[in-house]
Structure formats: C-alpha cells, structure tokens
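Practice problem: predict the structure.
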Amino acid sequence: MAYLDFTTSIHSKTKRDYIARVTEYPKAEAAKRAKKFDFDYWDGDRKTGYGGFVYDGRWAPVARKLAEHYGLQKGQKVLDIGCGKGFLLHDLMQEVPGLEVFGLDISQYAINHAKTEIKPLLTQGCATNLPYENNTFDLIISINTLHNLYCYELDKALKEIERVGKKNKYIVVESYRNEEEKANLLYWQLTCESFCTPQEWEWWFRQTKYSGDYSLIFFE
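Answer:
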C-alpha cells in the first residue's frame, strides 16, 4: 500500500466559501436533494451539487498518471467505482487505446447523461455488492466516492474491492487533519457519511485487508 496523490491539483482549483455554503441555502435541504444523486446533484444549482458536471478534459492528466504509474496496456481491465458520467474512464481509453473499461455508479441519472461513447460501459449499482467475478480487474479506481458510505457499508465495499481486483487499486477519499479542516469538510460536504482522520482511514484499510494505494482530500 502506498500514498499516491494524483488528484490534489484538481481539488485545489476550486475556490470554496465555506461559510456561504451553510448560510446561503438551508444545508439540510441541500443534502437531502444531493443524496438523490439526480439532476440537482449533477447539473442543478451549485448549492446542491456540482452546478453542472460537464466534460472539460480536467481528468486527462489524472488518466495519464494512472496509466503511467500502473503500466496500463491494451486488453487490461479497469473498473471505476463511483464513475459518475464516466469522464475519467473516457480519458483512460484515450490514453491507452484498447483498454477495457467498466464503470459503476449509484446514479442512474449520471449514467444516462454520460458521454455517448462511454455510456454502454457503465452499470448502475452499489460499491457494497459489485457484480463482477473474483480477480477480474487489473486496476480498480474509486475517487471521491467511498466516504459517501456508512461505516458498515464501507467495510463491505473495501472487501468487495479486494475480491474483484487483482494487485492494483487506487482510492481517493475525503479526510481531515485538524479542527479547521474538519469544520470546512462539514460545511462543504453534501453527501459524506464517513468522516475519518488519516489514521482512521488507515485503520479501515487494515481492518478490511485493503491492499491497494490511496490518497486523501483535505479542505484547507
């Protein structure tokens, strides 16, 4: 297991007003709407989600780093858990022609509005019950997804990742290192259910025998 940061450059580009997040619109109502993972979350107002989740190529550098680090090749299989509209998978296919990609997301809306060329490769489902055989994938990725699970679901999901994956896996989850980052995370998040320090995430990985790599997102 290694700590690998391929995503902070994307996360840090967003300017966040944490106080406005909880004063401009009722936070409880925003969370209720976001957790449906429907239009409001993906393409509605910024107060209830992404404010319009459109392809802009921002995931291309991440796809390149993943392909280079894990030595991805034609014919290998990659699964993205929490794939959303499949933008990262699309860029991985561009980076490694002939790569076989699969995406799974809880949101049927996201899949319905995925890029046309990637849509047939996406499946609606939950990380706690992956519809794949043991040792299927050469690389499993899950970015900004698993913290949306309750602890009992997180346990199942990490074990499922181990079951269907081979050697290489890469997870990115939200975390906090101090009270300021904890407050910012609580203010900003809409769908998070597992709020863990780095030490707690490491405990989860040991508890579930997760053997892959990981990175943490902080709200500074």
